[in-house]
Known about the structure:
The complex is a heterotetramer, with one copy of chain A, one copy of chain B and two copies of chain C.
Chain A: E1 7-16, E2 19-29, E3 34-39, H1 45-52, E4 60-65, E5 68-69, H2 75-80, E6 83-86, H3 98-102, H4 117-130, H5 146-159, E7 164-168, H6 176-191, E8 195-199, H7 203-209, E9 212-217, E10 220-226, H8 232-240, E11 258-267, E12 271-279, E13 283-288, H9 294-301, E14 309-314, E15 317-318, H10 324-330, E16 332-335, H11 339-342, H12 350-355, E17 363-364, E18 367-368, H13 370-384, H14 400-413, E19 418-422, H15 430-445, E20 449-453, H16 457-463, E21 466-471, E22 474-480, H17 486-493, H18 500-503
Parallel strand pairs in A: 3-8, 3-9, 6-7, 7-8, 13-20, 13-21, 16-19, 19-20
Antiparallel strand pairs in A: 1-2, 1-4, 4-5, 9-10, 11-12, 11-14, 14-15, 17-18, 21-22
Chain B: H1 15-18, E1 24-30, H2 35-55, E2 58-64, H3 67-79, E3 84-87, H4 92-104, E4 109-112, E5 123-126, H5 129-143, E6 147-154, H6 159-173, E7 177-185, H7 190-203, E8 209-212, H8 215-228, E9 235-240, H9 243-250, E10 255-260, H10 265-277, E11 286-288, E12 293-294, H11 299-302
Parallel strand pairs in B: 1-2, 1-3, 3-4, 4-5, 5-11, 6-7, 6-8, 8-9, 9-10
Antiparallel strand pairs in B: 10-12
Helix pairs in contact in B: 2-10, 3-4, 5-6, 7-8
Chain C: H1 2-28, H2 35-60, H3 68-86, H4 89-112, H5 118-136, E1 141-143, H6 151-154, E2 156-157, E3 160-161, H7 162-180, H8 182-192, H9 194-199, H10 204-230, E4 232-234, H11 242-252, H12 264-284, H13 291-304
The site of one adenosine-5'-triphosphate has 15 residues of chain A, from helix 5 and helix 9.
Keywords (chain A): ATP-binding, Nucleotide-binding, Repeat, Transport
GO molecular function (chain A): ATP binding
Protein name (chain A): Sugar ABC transporter ATP-binding protein
Amino acid sequence: MASHPFVAMNTIEKSFNGVPVLKKVTLEVEKGEIHALLGENGAGKSTLMNILGGVHQPDNGQIFINGEEVKMADPHVSQAQGISFIHQELNMVGDLRVYENMFLGSEIRNKIGFLNVEEMCRQTREILAELGVTINPKEYVRNLATSYKQLIEISKALLHKSQLIIMDEPTTSLAEHEVSRLFVLMKNLKKSGVSIIYISHKLKEIQEVCDRYTVLRDGQLVKTDVMENENLEVITKLMVGKSISQERYVHGHEFGEVALEVEGLTSAGLFKDINFSVRQGQIVGFTGLAGDGRTELFESLFGYRKKYSGIVKVKGKPVKINHPRKALQAGMGYVPKDRKENAIIKDLSVIHNMSLSSMGNFERLGFIQGKKEQQKFQTYKEALNIKVHNPRITIDKLSGGNQQKVIIAKWLEAETDILIFDNPTQGIDVGAKQEIYQQILMLAEFGKAIIILSSEAPEVMRICHDINVMYHGEITARFTGEEASEEEIMHYATGAKREGEKIG
Amino acid sequence: ACGSSESGGSGSTDEEASGDEQLTIGISLPSATHGWMGALIDSAEKQAKALKESEGIDYVMTNAEDPNTQANDVDDLIAQEVDVIVMLPIESAALSPVGQKIKDAGIPLVIVDRELENDAATVVVKGDNEGIGVNAGKYFVEQLNGEGKIVEITGPPSSVTEQRGSGFKEAVASESGMEIIASQSGDFSTEKSLEVMQNILQANPEIDAVFTQDDGMALGVLQAIKEAGRTDIQFVTGAGGAKGVFEDIQNDGLMKATFLYSPTMVEDAVKIAGDIAKGEEPAEAMVVKEATQVTKENVDEYYDPESKF
Amino acid sequence: MKSRMSWLWSEYSVIIAFVIIYIGASAMNPRFLDMNNQLNILMQVSIIGIIALGMTVVMLSGGIDLSVGSVLALAGVVSVLALNASGSIWIGVLTALLVGSFAGFLNGLMVAKGRIASFIATLGMMAGARSIALYIAEGGSVSGEVSGFTAIANSDFWIFDFPVIIFFVMAVLIYVLMHKTRFGRYVYALGSNEKAAMLSAIRVDRIKIGVYTLIGTLVGIAAVIETSRLNSISSSSSGAQYELDAIAAVIIGGTRMTGGRGKIIGTIFGILILGILNNMMNLMNVSPHLQGFVKGLIIIIAVVFQKRE
Amino acid sequence: MKSRMSWLWSEYSVIIAFVIIYIGASAMNPRFLDMNNQLNILMQVSIIGIIALGMTVVMLSGGIDLSVGSVLALAGVVSVLALNASGSIWIGVLTALLVGSFAGFLNGLMVAKGRIASFIATLGMMAGARSIALYIAEGGSVSGEVSGFTAIANSDFWIFDFPVIIFFVMAVLIYVLMHKTRFGRYVYALGSNEKAAMLSAIRVDRIKIGVYTLIGTLVGIAAVIETSRLNSISSSSSGAQYELDAIAAVIIGGTRMTGGRGKIIGTIFGILILGILNNMMNLMNVSPHLQGFVKGLIIIIAVVFQKRE
Ligand SMILES: Nc1ncnc2c1ncn2[C@@H]1O[C@H](COP(=O)(O)OP(=O)(O)OP(=O)(O)O)[C@@H](O)[C@H]1O
Ligand SMILES: Nc1ncnc2c1ncn2[C@@H]1O[C@H](COP(=O)(O)OP(=O)(O)OP(=O)(O)O)[C@@H](O)[C@H]1O
Ligand SMILES: [Mg+2]
Ligand SMILES: [Mg+2]
């Protein structure tokens, strides 16, 4: 073919603070194709896309659009070239309304230059309907669940009528049905000639929608090929250098005493009459759709939210938890979701993030022992395979997956008997995911009680002994890990079925 | 009392106005940003309280940071239909139209400290800012025999500072041997003056005398000289009439003279206002508090151990 | 109904605080409700009110402007000089606007291009503008010499003073700007999440420069009113601490310190609360030394009443 | 090597700015390098320096404290009264510390439990504390009557004045507190991401209260030094605008306005830069009218030099 690819990035090089992140990477995307960009956490995917989107400048290399060289000096230039970018980190303006976010930077105005609110709302409603979402366009974004924010980010990119859409992990907090709607949309876009670069750690998705793929490893191009007939095992191996099993992990082993017992927990408008218990060594999952209230439930249990009623017993003793500190003292740890907002302290170093919840372990006579912190971090670095050159840099310099591992290390260090993980593998590559699962299993074998919240049914099916399904703030079904099927879970999660008597 | 006021009982339900005539003095002063003003405000309030007890004359007192706020305060006083207003204008020029407004409202006006540019005032009770500078200048020429290196510590930029400074400069300029080698602001603050004087001492190995525009600042200057152990400086003068300065003069300290500018001048103004409120004609339209030179000879006449200033 | 109330409360708690204070003031002093007094209050808040409108925009964008008082003094001084030199009122007014907006523009440049924290950039401007004003006016005040200039601030329109009308018109203009144009939208976006705004291809720098230029222009307008009201402006005291009153009004009005959230309407009620407080303290004759205490306390109570996040 | 330099630059650009200013000052005035002058500068910055240490902690936690100057005046006034009443120096000192830390504790309560923006809470405290100080001292100043009290600030240790030693000791203590104890770690965490800090089981409220109580205590210490230095404190002018100098020092020192990032070392150099500036302007006899301009300009230049994010 004589014609040029729509986008060509040639021998792109980039380093941060002297550390090379991209080494002569080349990427070509044809018109009307969906191109998967794959790689471990920290492989350089987002960085490559940030260069294409004008957020970062490459140290070396060129970018061609339709065969013409373009210098992506800032996001403005990139957008003018017909490129939309859905960033990995959500970039919503919380204090603006949905439609205001949607049209931010490209408002529709009437003849005298005033904003045309009605028209913008209409178009917002339209585009959201295509994704199967009904949100009031005038709702403030800060009041929405993360999944909605992500859908709005996607819609915003769709609105621009771009020729290329970069989607950097767009589905991390989407539920199954939302993802499938998105895929339908992507396929339609493809038909109308729009190209998409798709980054995700969910390989099943990749196989479903992508035409070609490119794998990066440690900033180097490993392979570019067509997706068709390619085996997932092979791709995984390209990414992480070893094969990963997709089997169910959890084995039955003896559970200990009841570690956490919850009776009749209710909070107006968020959840009601929640009953469950977790034994030592048991892994209990909670799943459901966005807005089912499971996050609020466990934020309340952990003392972050104070307005709730009901009985909470830890090891049989009733406890009154009204602050996370009390929860920690009672023996609970909590790895929250949305790590950027809730978990990482971006101005603290990696080591200091690790030690934050258990300073007592590192103190002597009231003073912090820096050496001890460092040694301890070294053990976690090896145990959890945390990729970081220098643990004294601030945590925001790490890739998302590695940040998550540091947060897990933080709670391991706190040595609580009960550990709650909310979306623990959000945005984490398959290799790291497996490592995290193994850690969780090991913790269970040590006798810790584990609770996992996830909107991905397959995830809870793989690692949980027991699975609770939530719908509108209530537990509507309870399965054992073996008997659960994705289909069944979906029925309960969407409210199509409920199992009142079994839950009590 | 308020004979010219025609709005006697204009539907207002004010019980004081409807009953037997309650006399009220309105007082509008700057806010207490330095010692002298703090003392003045206090004197005014004490005098007003005394009048309230002895004569049953009520008072309303306001403080402002800037001319516009003071204009607002005066508006409030006029709206309250006070019988007489005592005002210390933050800036003469700016408050002159305000004075006119008071006059137009038919309210007698007693001005303290700084004159207005028009004839709105019924009575003026003022110190002599320019006199402070002139008298100090004369004193310097006399003591130094027309020759010497002088340091000036001024107040923060304002018309008071301007007047005291220009009076001093004029008087000193009469002798060609007199030289002002440094002129820095001590912000009417003891601590700031201490610091500024330390630095000036550093820059100038030879100083004959120091003129300060305020007694509070003079105390800081004394401390700086003491700490530096300098012996070349023959004397320091102040202005105002603060207790601490009088004591230093009495004890033969470095402080040799100060020039009266007492915050108690406001007491006279309030008393006069009380008389006007009662319907008496003021005895004189202009009461000038001389910038009397206080030295070792006459300090005991003015020293008051109970003074707050 | 209940949710209606709670919405009203969360969005407009400052109005409720205002109503409570208003009722309290009426109960405490019958003179408060006097029509004249009410009009006085409006007049008194108009200058700071105009500045507070601009401050709202700046604070919504996530910044702060400490230089407003000093810039007001500088714009006033320069414009009076231009007025006297040219004899033309228009030139005087235009000069004030130009000086104000140029100072604002410089602030904007420092914040947007120099990446200096707005607190420090405008602190520098605060010191610098005051300094230049003092230098030009030699520390004193300057007075207008062109008849007719005082008419700007001292005329009425029906029962309202002209400054009140200007304040009202400005409030409407800024309201429209913030809620009906994309400039306003971008200011909110920038204050709420600067990175997201930038990634939406908004030219964040221009918006910032615009915001500071806007407040500078409003300060220029305020300078015209202030100068014309008293036909003079003081280089040392005019505008002193206006920034604190303006910021207090904005925060009482419910705007978040860090930007992104807040309303013009809130600020208007915030400034009215401050105006009523000052007025009441003058009416009630609170001891001058204690006025700061009372004012501080009520501001804090008004803020506590507001919705917490 | 190159990366070493750029690291130094990014972490310690304030030190480089300091060195440049220091060299510039030496070149402009030979007296600057005089040992006495150097010691003077240290002495002059010690009071604001102690306050700036506390301000660094407050600003690292994401807050601000505008009340430091007023609380200093209040603590000074009350402690002198206690000193005179009891005749015991220890009781005087203890009173200052107690008043300071109690005022700080109240600030902390308002910010942590009342959820009031620190700007407004401490603005209220600023008005309130000044007000009470003026009320207690009746607008004037109060002087110590116990011999030996002045020794606190006026003794030396080797070549260093005692206040300089106190400043140094405090700097080391605060450094250790911020970098070697969990309190410090929590302050950084809180300033960087309050929600994440809370979800890490940190008692955010207590840390906030602690932070404001700490700065209050430091202000109490500063009050002792200030009062002891001149054996008196003025309820009206002492501590005026200290907050601006302290905040300027912190920001020049590279601490981020929104918290989470910054260093004690930076603040120390920030305060030294300010001290050198004031010293140089006095040494060079810069017109008081222009000092604000020069100071504002150099602060802005020093900040521009810093690393941008
Ligand atoms: N602004 C930055 N400063 C310094 N280092 C950075 C910066 N951004 C990214 N890096 C580093 O570059 C490498 C690549 O990061 P990048 O975000 O591109 O990874 P990724 O492939 O998108 O990973 P993930 O799947 O976790 O999103 C990582 O080691 C990261 O630490
Ligand atoms: N601060 C808030 N104010 C008002 N409503 C909120 C707030 N936070 C969450 N909600 C609402 O509560 C509901 C639950 O949201 P949440 O984010 O907890 O869902 P979730 O179960 O964790 O789902 P997922 O993790 O899949 O996004 C949503 O309807 C959301 O809009
Ligand atoms: Mg990425
Ligand atoms: Mg990721």
